[in-house]
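Subject: Interface between my chains keeps coming out wrong

I've been trying for a while to get a sensible model of this assembly. When I model each chain on its own everything looks fine, but I need the whole thing in one frame so I can look at the contacts. Pasting all components below, labels as-is. Any help appreciated, I'm running out of ideas.
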Amino acid sequence: MYPTAHQEAITITRRLTRQQSRELTREQLLQAAAELFAEHGVSGTSVEQIVERAGYTRGAFYGNFEGKHELVLALLEQRTQRELEEIQELSRDAGSFDDLMDHMRSWYRRRDETLGSWLALRTELWLYGLRDPKLLPVLADRERRSRAALAQALEQGFADRSVAPPAPVEFLALVVHSLGDGLSIQRVISPEDSDIDTVANAIELLMRSWSALARNPAPANEASRPSPGHPTDKSRMPPIEKPEKNP
Amino acid sequence: MYPTAHQEAITITRRLTRQQSRELTREQLLQAAAELFAEHGVSGTSVEQIVERAGYTRGAFYGNFEGKHELVLALLEQRTQRELEEIQELSRDAGSFDDLMDHMRSWYRRRDETLGSWLALRTELWLYGLRDPKLLPVLADRERRSRAALAQALEQGFADRSVAPPAPVEFLALVVHSLGDGLSIQRVISPEDSDIDTVANAIELLMRSWSALARNPAPANEASRPSPGHPTDKSRMPPIEKPEKNP
DNA sequence: CATTTCAGATACATAGCCGTATTGGGATAC
DNA sequence: GTATCCCAATACGGCTATGTATCTGAAATG
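Reply #2:
Try treating it as a single job with all components included. I did that and got this:
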């Protein structure tokens, strides 16, 4: 439609080199796709809709991607990259655990503006990955890295409070990480039942609770239960071993 | 294809009354749709695929539903109903909180067999609801009921341990509920990083931690932080009020 | 400038899906 | 047993998406 629009998009420099033009197109297609995927889902979005929103025609699309599948791959790659950068950034310039909590709180506040569409896209991508055997490991790896960063932060947090974690930090990180996802879902479904700071508040509550437990681990009347006793196998997550009922 | 298949489906009784036949068809269409939605998503599934898997033709479909939209509605209704029944059942025949934890553990064990497809369908339905303004309140209501049941159970749990909850049980229920979702997602993405009992273990850990916190609320070196102080507004969830930094 | 190259537009052929209109055959009613 | 009803199958028309093949004009190259 507007092949000249590229020239307006750049400020002064020159008209636009070919490579630049190509990259810009690719980026705009990805952006349009991201929006549409959030709105109507991956398979609810046609290639024509994507190029229309980006201001191109199908020719541009097939010149840049083999098909929708490859575009989704590229989008997943891009978003994964960004997410990991955000996490690194977050934990990099935080001195203490409480620092990091502050950063996390403001991160979630910013995120809250567009929580619905953000989460929808994220969810679409994981569903897509779930259905493609080649992609699932990629997702798994991303989650693992996130959890690893979280685990490190938690370790720091316990050190700050000079208590020992009541369970392997990897397990606690899994819990905290999952909590972020789950609470976000709940917030999108019914915002009136939660709060912009719910995630941060919940995590702080957990941290205080775990610290309390670490200081005061065996409260008498719970000894009757087959209490876990800290897991000796560090690599494995689940702390509890129950006596079996069937012989 | 096999209009006579209905007769084989019933055991002895009679050939099949008309109404029965109709209901059976509807049910089979719903079942087929549920499977396909989990496999390929709602909009990734065509009406033809649905009727093909159910063993009918499109005529049967449009005789029973106005279109795919109405089928999704019916499916959501059905699944919501079942889920709430399961929850009620779970909490009904559990005497104590620990009882309920046992039931929940075995529930999650059973669920684990088909966790992937179950969660995929569930997720597809919530994404669908998210995009339909009429449906979102339905989802919200379902979640609210689940959380309410959970809150009640938690209340019982704290009573069993004779401690006061460290935050409104509604908030704790939100946390526990979200945790269930989040951990399930993580488990589907990378089963090797979690465990079949992770959800139950995590919840038990939380319960012990919260009990510990309730018994030992103010651990000295944390007083410097703007500690929440239990929320006075019971209806609202988030416990923490922070001092503002910008004037 | 003249020529080549290539990003993106246009044109086209094909396939799949949707929804309705019609038909057939087994249940229901008399 | 015959007539009626109605559930599901079949047939049809229209629409939309896909992918390729071809074309155009602006950048790169000399």
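Reply #3:
Confirming on my end. Residues 1, 3, 18, 21-22, 25, 56-61, 63-64 of chain B lie near DNA strand D (CB under 10 Å from a C1').
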